[in-house]
TrEMBL record, chain A:
UniProt xrefs under InterPro entries: Cell/Rod_1, Cell/Rod_MreC_2, MreC, MreC_beta-barrel_core
Gene3D superfamilies given in the database record: Rod shape-determining protein MreC, domain 1, Rod shape-determining protein MreC, domain 2
Organism: freshwater metagenome
Protein name per its UniProtKB record: Cell shape-determining protein MreC
One Pfam family cited in the UniProt record for this chain: MreC
Domain named Rod shape-determining protein MreC beta-barrel core: residues: 127-279
Biological process terms in GO annotation: regulation of cell shape
GO CC, one annotated term: plasma membrane
Automatic annotation (TrEMBL), chain B:
Species this chain originates from: freshwater metagenome
Keyword Ligase tagged: no
GO biological process: regulation of cell shape
Pfam families, alphabetized: MreD
Main localization (coarse): membrane
Gene Ontology cellular component terms for the protein in this record: plasma membrane
Name of the protein in its database record: Unannotated protein
Keyword Hydrolase belongs to the record: no
Transmembrane region(s): 6-26, 38-62, 74-91, 103-124, 136-157
Topology of the protein relative to the lipid bilayer: Multi-pass membrane protein
Localization in the cell: Cell membrane
Keyword annotations of the record: Cell membrane, Cell shape, Membrane, Transmembrane, Transmembrane helix
Protein backbone atom coordinates (compact mmCIF):
# COMPACT_ATOMS: atom_id res chain seq x y z
CA UNK A 1 0.00 0.00 0.00
CA UNK A 2 1.20 3.52 -0.86
CA UNK A 3 2.09 5.71 2.14
CA UNK A 4 -0.60 8.31 2.89
CA UNK A 5 1.77 11.25 2.79
CA UNK A 6 5.01 11.59 0.93
CA UNK A 7 8.22 12.65 2.63
CA UNK A 8 9.71 16.02 1.62
CA UNK A 9 12.23 14.48 -0.75
CA UNK A 10 9.49 12.73 -2.73
CA UNK A 11 7.46 15.92 -2.94
CA UNK A 12 10.46 17.75 -4.38
CA UNK A 13 10.87 14.96 -6.91
CA UNK A 14 7.16 15.19 -7.84
CA UNK A 15 7.45 18.89 -8.52
CA UNK A 16 10.56 18.29 -10.58
CA UNK A 17 8.72 15.61 -12.61
CA UNK A 18 5.79 17.96 -13.19
CA UNK A 19 8.11 20.76 -14.30
CA UNK A 20 9.91 18.51 -16.78
CA UNK A 21 6.62 17.17 -18.19
CA UNK A 22 5.14 20.65 -18.51
CA UNK A 23 8.19 21.88 -20.39
CA UNK A 24 8.11 18.78 -22.58
CA UNK A 25 4.44 19.25 -23.51
CA UNK A 26 4.91 22.96 -24.21
CA UNK A 27 7.80 22.00 -26.52
CA UNK A 28 5.62 19.42 -28.30
CA UNK A 29 2.77 21.93 -28.73
CA UNK A 30 5.20 24.50 -30.16
CA UNK A 31 6.85 22.04 -32.52
CA UNK A 32 3.46 20.79 -33.73
CA UNK A 33 2.25 24.35 -34.30
CA UNK A 34 5.36 24.97 -36.42
CA UNK A 35 4.53 21.86 -38.48
CA UNK A 36 7.56 19.71 -37.65
CA UNK A 37 7.25 16.68 -40.00
CA UNK A 38 8.36 14.16 -37.36
CA UNK A 39 5.31 14.86 -35.19
CA UNK A 40 2.79 14.83 -38.03
CA UNK A 41 4.24 11.60 -39.42
CA UNK A 42 4.00 10.03 -35.93
CA UNK A 43 0.35 11.04 -35.81
CA UNK A 44 -0.31 9.78 -39.34
CA UNK A 45 1.41 6.46 -38.64
CA UNK A 46 -0.62 5.92 -35.50
CA UNK A 47 -3.84 6.62 -37.41
CA UNK A 48 -2.87 4.11 -40.11
CA UNK A 49 -1.81 1.54 -37.53
CA UNK A 50 -5.06 1.92 -35.67
CA UNK A 51 -7.28 1.87 -38.76
CA UNK A 52 -7.66 -1.96 -38.78
CA UNK A 53 -8.12 -1.98 -34.99
CA UNK A 54 -10.89 0.57 -35.26
CA UNK A 55 -12.47 -1.35 -38.14
CA UNK A 56 -12.33 -4.64 -36.23
CA UNK A 57 -13.62 -3.08 -33.01
CA UNK A 58 -16.50 -1.46 -34.83
CA UNK A 59 -17.38 -4.75 -36.49
CA UNK A 60 -17.22 -6.68 -33.20
CA UNK A 61 -19.23 -4.10 -31.31
CA UNK A 62 -21.87 -3.49 -33.97
CA UNK A 63 -24.62 -5.44 -32.12
CA UNK A 64 -23.83 -3.61 -28.86
CA UNK A 65 -23.73 -0.25 -30.58
CA UNK A 66 -27.02 -0.98 -32.31
CA UNK A 67 -28.54 -1.97 -28.98
CA UNK A 68 -27.11 1.14 -27.37
CA UNK A 69 -28.40 3.36 -30.17
CA UNK A 70 -31.74 1.65 -29.79
CA UNK A 71 -31.83 2.56 -26.09
CA UNK A 72 -30.50 6.10 -26.35
CA UNK A 73 -32.27 7.01 -29.58
CA UNK A 74 -35.56 5.34 -28.73
CA UNK A 75 -37.79 8.23 -29.85
CA UNK A 76 -35.98 8.66 -33.15
CA UNK A 77 -36.02 4.94 -33.66
CA UNK A 78 -39.76 4.78 -33.05
CA UNK A 79 -40.42 7.59 -35.52
CA UNK A 80 -38.22 5.90 -38.10
CA UNK A 81 -39.97 2.60 -37.47
CA UNK A 82 -43.36 4.17 -38.09
CA UNK A 83 -42.12 5.70 -41.33
CA UNK A 84 -40.62 2.38 -42.38
CA UNK A 85 -43.82 0.54 -41.59
CA UNK A 86 -45.78 2.94 -43.78
CA UNK A 87 -43.24 2.66 -46.57
CA UNK A 88 -42.61 -1.02 -46.53
CA UNK A 89 -45.96 -2.42 -45.54
CA UNK A 90 -45.88 -6.18 -45.61
CA UNK A 91 -42.45 -6.63 -47.22
CA UNK A 92 -40.54 -9.66 -46.04
CA UNK A 93 -37.12 -9.54 -44.39
CA UNK A 94 -35.49 -10.77 -47.56
CA UNK A 95 -37.03 -8.01 -49.58
CA UNK A 96 -35.80 -5.53 -47.00
CA UNK A 97 -32.26 -6.86 -47.28
CA UNK A 98 -32.45 -6.63 -51.04
CA UNK A 99 -33.79 -3.10 -50.82
CA UNK A 100 -30.95 -2.17 -48.51
CA UNK A 101 -28.40 -3.59 -50.96
CA UNK A 102 -30.08 -1.76 -53.82
CA UNK A 103 -30.01 1.44 -51.81
CA UNK A 104 -26.31 0.98 -51.13
CA UNK A 105 -25.67 0.42 -54.83
CA UNK A 106 -27.77 3.43 -55.73
CA UNK A 107 -25.77 5.59 -53.32
CA UNK A 108 -22.53 4.51 -54.93
CA UNK A 109 -23.91 4.97 -58.46
CA UNK A 110 -25.23 8.35 -57.49
CA UNK A 111 -21.76 9.44 -56.41
CA UNK A 112 -20.31 8.21 -59.69
CA UNK A 113 -22.64 10.40 -61.71
CA UNK A 114 -22.22 13.85 -60.27
CA UNK A 115 -23.21 16.23 -63.05
CA UNK A 116 -21.14 19.23 -61.97
CA UNK A 117 -17.90 17.23 -61.92
CA UNK A 118 -17.72 16.70 -65.68
CA UNK A 119 -14.59 14.77 -66.57
CA UNK A 120 -12.61 15.90 -63.51
CA UNK A 121 -10.63 13.09 -61.89
CA UNK A 122 -12.18 11.99 -58.63
CA UNK A 123 -12.25 9.20 -56.07
CA UNK A 124 -15.29 7.74 -54.34
CA UNK A 125 -14.79 7.31 -50.57
CA UNK A 126 -16.87 6.33 -47.60
CA UNK A 127 -17.24 8.34 -44.39
CA UNK A 128 -16.06 6.02 -41.63
CA UNK A 129 -16.31 8.17 -38.56
CA UNK A 130 -17.31 11.56 -37.32
CA UNK A 131 -15.48 13.69 -34.83
CA UNK A 132 -13.07 11.91 -32.45
CA UNK A 133 -13.32 14.69 -29.91
CA UNK A 134 -16.29 15.46 -27.71
CA UNK A 135 -15.99 19.06 -28.86
CA UNK A 136 -17.23 19.95 -32.32
CA UNK A 137 -14.15 19.85 -34.54
CA UNK A 138 -16.11 19.94 -37.83
CA UNK A 139 -14.27 17.03 -39.40
CA UNK A 140 -15.06 13.55 -40.68
CA UNK A 141 -12.71 10.75 -41.57
CA UNK A 142 -12.93 8.96 -44.94
CA UNK A 143 -11.59 5.54 -45.83
CA UNK A 144 -9.22 6.56 -48.66
CA UNK A 145 -5.81 8.14 -48.41
CA UNK A 146 -2.62 9.09 -50.22
CA UNK A 147 -2.14 5.60 -51.67
CA UNK A 148 -5.08 6.40 -54.00
CA UNK A 149 -3.73 9.81 -54.88
CA UNK A 150 -5.64 11.93 -52.39
CA UNK A 151 -3.86 15.02 -51.07
CA UNK A 152 -4.34 17.89 -48.66
CA UNK A 153 -6.56 20.53 -50.27
CA UNK A 154 -8.68 18.14 -52.38
CA UNK A 155 -12.33 19.28 -52.39
CA UNK A 156 -14.86 16.71 -51.16
CA UNK A 157 -18.37 16.68 -52.62
CA UNK A 158 -21.59 14.71 -52.82
CA UNK A 159 -24.30 14.96 -55.41
CA UNK A 160 -25.83 17.65 -53.18
CA UNK A 161 -22.75 19.84 -53.39
CA UNK A 162 -19.65 20.83 -51.44
CA UNK A 163 -18.92 18.89 -48.25
CA UNK A 164 -15.47 20.25 -47.39
CA UNK A 165 -11.81 19.75 -48.16
CA UNK A 166 -9.11 17.36 -47.07
CA UNK A 167 -6.90 18.76 -44.32
CA UNK A 168 -4.91 15.67 -43.34
CA UNK A 169 -3.92 12.61 -45.33
CA UNK A 170 -2.38 9.34 -44.25
CA UNK A 171 -1.72 6.36 -46.47
CA UNK A 172 -5.15 4.81 -45.93
CA UNK A 173 -7.28 7.55 -44.37
CA UNK A 174 -8.06 11.23 -44.80
CA UNK A 175 -9.59 13.86 -42.56
CA UNK A 176 -12.08 16.22 -44.17
CA UNK A 177 -12.73 19.70 -42.79
CA UNK A 178 -16.44 20.30 -43.25
CA UNK A 179 -17.76 23.46 -44.86
CA UNK A 180 -19.82 23.95 -41.68
CA UNK A 181 -16.61 24.87 -39.79
CA UNK A 182 -16.63 28.62 -38.95
CA UNK A 183 -12.95 28.64 -40.01
CA UNK A 184 -13.79 27.29 -43.48
CA UNK A 185 -13.78 30.27 -45.85
CA UNK A 186 -14.31 29.90 -49.57
CA UNK A 187 -14.84 32.14 -52.59
CA UNK A 188 -18.37 31.85 -53.97
CA UNK A 189 -20.36 32.93 -57.00
CA UNK A 190 -23.98 33.88 -56.43
CA UNK A 191 -26.99 33.92 -58.73
CA UNK A 192 -27.33 34.20 -62.48
CA UNK A 193 -25.13 37.34 -62.53
CA UNK A 194 -22.33 35.32 -60.93
CA UNK A 195 -21.57 37.94 -58.29
CA UNK A 196 -18.42 36.96 -56.44
CA UNK A 197 -18.03 36.97 -52.68
CA UNK A 198 -16.52 35.10 -49.77
CA UNK A 199 -18.46 32.91 -47.36
CA UNK A 200 -17.84 30.73 -44.35
CA UNK A 201 -19.48 28.08 -42.19
CA UNK A 202 -21.32 29.01 -39.03
CA UNK A 203 -20.84 25.94 -36.87
CA UNK A 204 -24.25 24.49 -37.61
CA UNK A 205 -25.33 22.19 -40.42
CA UNK A 206 -28.06 24.43 -41.77
CA UNK A 207 -26.57 27.84 -42.54
CA UNK A 208 -23.65 29.17 -44.55
CA UNK A 209 -22.93 32.89 -44.50
CA UNK A 210 -21.64 35.03 -47.36
CA UNK A 211 -20.56 38.28 -45.74
CA UNK A 212 -17.88 39.70 -48.03
CA UNK A 213 -17.81 40.82 -51.62
CA UNK A 214 -21.52 41.12 -52.47
CA UNK A 215 -22.05 44.87 -52.88
CA UNK A 216 -25.30 46.61 -51.98
CA UNK A 217 -25.90 47.27 -55.68
CA UNK A 218 -25.45 43.62 -56.74
CA UNK A 219 -28.68 41.94 -57.70
CA UNK A 220 -29.28 38.93 -55.46
CA UNK A 221 -32.62 37.28 -54.75
CA UNK A 222 -33.80 34.60 -52.30
CA UNK A 223 -33.54 31.10 -53.83
CA UNK A 224 -30.53 32.15 -55.94
CA UNK A 225 -27.94 29.37 -56.12
CA UNK A 226 -24.57 29.77 -54.43
CA UNK A 227 -21.56 27.94 -55.85
CA UNK A 228 -18.00 27.38 -54.74
CA UNK A 229 -15.43 27.55 -57.51
CA UNK A 230 -15.48 29.49 -60.73
CA UNK A 231 -12.92 31.88 -59.23
CA UNK A 232 -9.19 32.08 -60.00
CA UNK A 233 -6.75 31.51 -57.09
CA UNK A 234 -9.46 29.99 -54.93
CA UNK A 235 -9.24 26.83 -52.81
CA UNK A 236 -11.81 25.31 -55.20
CA UNK A 237 -11.27 24.42 -58.87
CA UNK A 238 -11.80 27.53 -61.05
CA UNK A 239 -13.42 25.51 -63.85
CA UNK A 240 -16.08 23.84 -61.67
CA UNK A 241 -19.22 25.25 -60.13
CA UNK A 242 -19.83 23.20 -57.00
CA UNK A 243 -23.21 23.91 -55.36
CA UNK A 244 -23.20 25.05 -51.73
CA UNK A 245 -26.83 25.98 -51.31
CA UNK A 246 -29.54 28.51 -52.01
CA UNK A 247 -29.95 32.01 -50.63
CA UNK A 248 -32.45 32.10 -47.80
CA UNK A 249 -32.18 35.61 -46.34
CA UNK A 250 -30.50 38.80 -47.53
CA UNK A 251 -29.51 41.46 -44.99
CA UNK A 252 -27.89 44.72 -46.08
CA UNK A 253 -24.90 45.80 -43.98
CA UNK A 254 -24.77 49.56 -44.51
CA UNK A 255 -21.57 49.98 -42.51
CA UNK A 256 -19.60 47.50 -44.60
CA UNK A 257 -21.51 48.42 -47.80
CA UNK A 258 -22.24 44.75 -48.52
CA UNK A 259 -25.18 42.37 -48.53
CA UNK A 260 -24.96 39.50 -46.03
CA UNK A 261 -26.47 36.32 -47.43
CA UNK A 262 -27.77 33.49 -45.31
CA UNK A 263 -27.51 30.33 -47.39
CA UNK A 264 -29.21 26.98 -46.80
CA UNK A 265 -26.95 24.02 -47.60
CA UNK A 266 -27.99 21.59 -50.31
CA UNK A 267 -25.98 18.80 -48.64
CA UNK A 268 -27.62 16.88 -45.80
CA UNK A 269 -24.74 16.65 -43.31
CA UNK A 270 -26.64 14.32 -40.99
CA UNK A 271 -26.59 11.64 -43.67
CA UNK A 272 -23.05 11.78 -45.01
CA UNK A 273 -22.13 8.32 -46.17
CA UNK A 274 -20.49 8.12 -49.58
CA UNK A 275 -18.56 11.13 -50.87
CA UNK A 276 -16.46 11.95 -53.89
CA UNK A 277 -12.99 13.49 -53.58
CA UNK A 278 -11.94 15.74 -56.46
CA UNK A 279 -8.29 15.13 -57.29
CA UNK A 280 -7.38 18.79 -57.58
CA UNK A 281 -5.17 20.83 -55.30
CA UNK A 282 -5.08 24.61 -54.97
CA UNK A 283 -2.06 26.41 -56.41
CA UNK A 284 -0.90 27.70 -53.03
CA UNK B 1 13.04 -8.44 -14.75
CA UNK B 2 13.34 -5.84 -11.98
CA UNK B 3 10.48 -4.06 -10.26
CA UNK B 4 10.94 -0.84 -12.22
CA UNK B 5 10.73 -2.61 -15.61
CA UNK B 6 7.64 -4.53 -14.50
CA UNK B 7 6.00 -1.27 -13.46
CA UNK B 8 6.75 0.35 -16.83
CA UNK B 9 5.54 -2.73 -18.68
CA UNK B 10 2.28 -2.95 -16.75
CA UNK B 11 1.46 0.73 -17.12
CA UNK B 12 2.33 0.60 -20.85
CA UNK B 13 0.05 -2.37 -21.34
CA UNK B 14 -2.77 -0.65 -19.49
CA UNK B 15 -2.31 2.54 -21.51
CA UNK B 16 -2.36 0.71 -24.83
CA UNK B 17 -5.43 -1.34 -23.89
CA UNK B 18 -7.25 1.76 -22.69
CA UNK B 19 -6.33 3.57 -25.91
CA UNK B 20 -7.65 0.75 -28.10
CA UNK B 21 -10.82 0.66 -26.00
CA UNK B 22 -11.26 4.41 -26.33
CA UNK B 23 -10.61 4.59 -30.07
CA UNK B 24 -12.23 1.33 -31.12
CA UNK B 25 -15.24 1.08 -28.86
CA UNK B 26 -16.04 3.97 -26.54
CA UNK B 27 -16.05 6.67 -29.21
CA UNK B 28 -19.29 5.20 -30.53
CA UNK B 29 -21.00 5.01 -27.16
CA UNK B 30 -22.20 8.54 -26.76
CA UNK B 31 -24.94 9.14 -24.21
CA UNK B 32 -26.27 12.66 -25.00
CA UNK B 33 -23.67 12.81 -27.77
CA UNK B 34 -20.70 12.64 -25.39
CA UNK B 35 -18.27 9.74 -25.06
CA UNK B 36 -16.28 8.88 -21.92
CA UNK B 37 -12.64 10.00 -21.72
CA UNK B 38 -10.91 6.98 -20.27
CA UNK B 39 -7.42 8.25 -21.04
CA UNK B 40 -8.15 11.17 -18.74
CA UNK B 41 -9.59 8.73 -16.21
CA UNK B 42 -6.40 6.68 -16.34
CA UNK B 43 -4.33 9.78 -15.54
CA UNK B 44 -6.54 10.53 -12.55
CA UNK B 45 -6.49 6.95 -11.29
CA UNK B 46 -2.71 6.87 -11.79
CA UNK B 47 -2.46 9.88 -9.49
CA UNK B 48 -4.89 8.43 -6.94
CA UNK B 49 -3.09 5.08 -6.78
CA UNK B 50 0.55 5.94 -7.48
CA UNK B 51 0.85 9.51 -6.21
CA UNK B 52 1.43 12.83 -7.89
CA UNK B 53 4.56 11.83 -9.87
CA UNK B 54 2.90 8.74 -11.26
CA UNK B 55 -0.24 10.74 -12.07
CA UNK B 56 1.80 13.27 -14.03
CA UNK B 57 3.77 10.63 -15.95
CA UNK B 58 0.74 8.44 -16.76
CA UNK B 59 -1.24 11.58 -17.63
CA UNK B 60 1.47 12.75 -20.01
CA UNK B 61 1.56 9.48 -21.97
CA UNK B 62 -2.22 8.99 -21.84
CA UNK B 63 -2.70 12.52 -23.14
CA UNK B 64 -0.10 12.09 -25.86
CA UNK B 65 -1.88 8.95 -27.10
CA UNK B 66 -5.18 10.81 -26.93
CA UNK B 67 -3.76 13.67 -29.00
CA UNK B 68 -2.72 11.26 -31.75
CA UNK B 69 -6.33 10.57 -32.67
CA UNK B 70 -7.60 14.14 -32.37
CA UNK B 71 -7.26 16.88 -34.96
CA UNK B 72 -6.15 19.60 -32.56
CA UNK B 73 -2.59 20.48 -31.57
CA UNK B 74 -0.42 17.63 -30.37
CA UNK B 75 0.42 17.98 -26.69
CA UNK B 76 -2.68 19.74 -25.35
CA UNK B 77 -4.23 16.63 -23.82
CA UNK B 78 -0.76 15.57 -22.62
CA UNK B 79 -0.37 18.80 -20.68
CA UNK B 80 -3.92 18.80 -19.27
CA UNK B 81 -3.90 15.12 -18.29
CA UNK B 82 -0.46 15.42 -16.68
CA UNK B 83 -1.60 18.38 -14.60
CA UNK B 84 -4.85 16.76 -13.43
CA UNK B 85 -3.04 13.46 -12.77
CA UNK B 86 -0.55 15.33 -10.60
CA UNK B 87 -3.33 17.21 -8.82
CA UNK B 88 -5.24 13.97 -8.19
CA UNK B 89 -2.14 12.54 -6.49
CA UNK B 90 -1.70 15.64 -4.34
CA UNK B 91 -5.39 15.59 -3.35
CA UNK B 92 -5.33 11.89 -2.52
CA UNK B 93 -2.21 12.45 -0.39
CA UNK B 94 -3.88 15.25 1.53
CA UNK B 95 -6.71 12.94 2.58
CA UNK B 96 -6.08 11.32 5.97
CA UNK B 97 -8.24 8.28 5.42
CA UNK B 98 -8.75 7.35 1.82
CA UNK B 99 -11.95 5.69 0.66
CA UNK B 100 -13.59 4.56 -2.53
CA UNK B 101 -16.04 7.46 -2.34
CA UNK B 102 -13.24 10.01 -2.08
CA UNK B 103 -11.46 8.43 -5.04
CA UNK B 104 -14.71 8.64 -7.04
CA UNK B 105 -15.12 12.28 -6.06
CA UNK B 106 -11.53 13.04 -7.12
CA UNK B 107 -12.10 11.27 -10.47
CA UNK B 108 -15.36 13.17 -11.04
CA UNK B 109 -14.03 16.62 -10.17
CA UNK B 110 -10.68 15.91 -11.87
CA UNK B 111 -12.45 14.93 -15.09
CA UNK B 112 -14.44 18.15 -15.07
CA UNK B 113 -11.27 20.19 -14.51
CA UNK B 114 -9.40 18.22 -17.18
CA UNK B 115 -12.07 18.75 -19.84
CA UNK B 116 -12.40 22.45 -19.00
CA UNK B 117 -8.64 22.90 -19.09
CA UNK B 118 -8.50 21.12 -22.46
CA UNK B 119 -11.24 23.40 -23.81
CA UNK B 120 -9.40 26.53 -22.61
CA UNK B 121 -6.04 25.49 -24.06
CA UNK B 122 -7.60 24.37 -27.36
CA UNK B 123 -9.41 27.68 -27.67
CA UNK B 124 -6.10 29.50 -27.15
CA UNK B 125 -4.66 27.47 -30.02
CA UNK B 126 -7.44 28.31 -32.45
CA UNK B 127 -10.35 25.88 -32.01
CA UNK B 128 -13.87 26.70 -30.85
CA UNK B 129 -14.06 24.30 -27.91
CA UNK B 130 -14.56 26.88 -25.16
CA UNK B 131 -17.32 28.55 -27.16
CA UNK B 132 -18.93 25.19 -27.92
CA UNK B 133 -22.59 25.49 -26.81
CA UNK B 134 -22.37 21.92 -25.45
CA UNK B 135 -19.36 22.68 -23.22
CA UNK B 136 -21.15 22.27 -19.88
CA UNK B 137 -23.03 19.21 -21.08
CA UNK B 138 -19.73 17.63 -22.14
CA UNK B 139 -18.10 18.47 -18.79
CA UNK B 140 -21.05 17.08 -16.83
CA UNK B 141 -21.42 13.84 -18.80
CA UNK B 142 -17.67 13.10 -18.95
CA UNK B 143 -17.20 13.70 -15.22
CA UNK B 144 -20.23 11.60 -14.26
CA UNK B 145 -19.20 8.73 -16.53
CA UNK B 146 -15.60 8.86 -15.35
CA UNK B 147 -16.77 8.98 -11.74
CA UNK B 148 -18.56 5.68 -12.26
CA UNK B 149 -15.94 4.11 -14.52
CA UNK B 150 -13.21 4.78 -11.97
CA UNK B 151 -14.62 1.87 -9.94
CA UNK B 152 -13.38 -0.40 -12.73
CA UNK B 153 -10.23 1.59 -13.50
CA UNK B 154 -8.90 1.77 -9.91
CA UNK B 155 -8.30 -2.00 -9.51
CA UNK B 156 -6.53 -2.06 -12.89
CA UNK B 157 -4.30 0.82 -11.84
CA UNK B 158 -3.61 -0.95 -8.54
CA UNK B 159 -2.51 -3.96 -10.57
CA UNK B 160 -0.29 -1.78 -12.78
CA UNK B 161 1.23 -0.16 -9.71
CA UNK B 162 2.01 -3.60 -8.30
CA UNK B 163 -0.43 -3.55 -5.38
CA UNK B 164 -2.50 -6.45 -6.68
CA UNK B 165 -6.09 -6.29 -7.91
CA UNK B 166 -7.64 -6.86 -4.50
CA UNK B 167 -5.48 -4.44 -2.53
CA UNK B 168 -7.33 -1.78 -0.50
CA UNK B 169 -4.98 1.00 -1.61
CA UNK B 170 -7.19 3.64 -3.18
Amino acid sequence: MRPLSQPGKNRKRSRYVLLVITLLTVTIITLDARGVPLLSSARDSSRDALAPVRGASRWVTTPFRNAWNGITGYDTLREENEKLRQQLGQDTANEMREASAQEELAKLKEQLNISFLGSTQSQVARVISGASSNFADFTVEIDKGSELGLAVGNPVVTKGGLVGRIVRVTKKRSVVQLITDPDFSVGVTVGPDQNQGVGHGTGNTRTFIVDRGIDLTDEVKPKDSVFAGGIENSIMPPDLFIPIGTVDKITPDEAARVQVLQVNYTVDFSRLDVVQVIKWIPAS
Amino acid sequence: MNAESTLVLRWSLLLVLAYVLQVGVLQDFRPFGVHPEIMLLLALCGGIIGGSSRGAIVGFFAGLLNDLQLNGSLGISALCFALVGFAAGVLEDSVIRSSRLISMAIATVGSAVGVLMYACLSQLLGTHSLSDPRLWLIITIVSLMNGVLCLAALPLCRWAEGFGLNSRAY
